[in-house]
# Entry
Amino acid sequence: MDRTLLVKDKVIVFDKKIASRFYNKHFGSFQDGNLELSLEEALYLKYKKELEIYDFGGKKLSSKIFLRKAERLQKRFFIRYAVFRDMRSLGYILKTAFKYGGDFRVYDKGGAPGKEHALWILYAGSERESMPLLSFSAMNRVAHSVKKSVLLGIVDEEGSVTYYEINWRKF
# Structure
């Protein structure tokens, strides 16, 4: 099968040549010989016209339909995607940060995940959301314990993103 297929909350790339090209650009991870892309990665590549995505019936999914499916599969998908798209367009490399309680690990421009450490743990949010102080404290403690800074990516009503970096200070 040479198609790219939406399977649950991942997009699987079966074509080895295409998979290698995306992986070399720091997209996805290999599982069982095929490249798995996150929903954010897949939509980003689709908007850049580098990827076509199909459903199990063999139907090509439009960006609009894929976005709707992704929003049903993942809470806050559009907010996460807006931040992902913005950071990737700035040249940063993003990988998931679920084990740190964040949305993404952010690697420097030109960085290589696995060979270098991430600069930030990125938390995506909306300007309409509030954050309890305990959550804010917890995210800072986790980031500090793994020697990273917190980066908040706040998405406004127009889809623009503003970033806030949080660092520890000892007095």
In short: The chain is about 30% helix and 30% strand. Residues 77-166 form a domain with the Trna Endonuclease; Chain: A, domain 1 fold (CATH 3.40.1350.10). The CA atoms of residues 132 and 138 lie 10 Å apart.
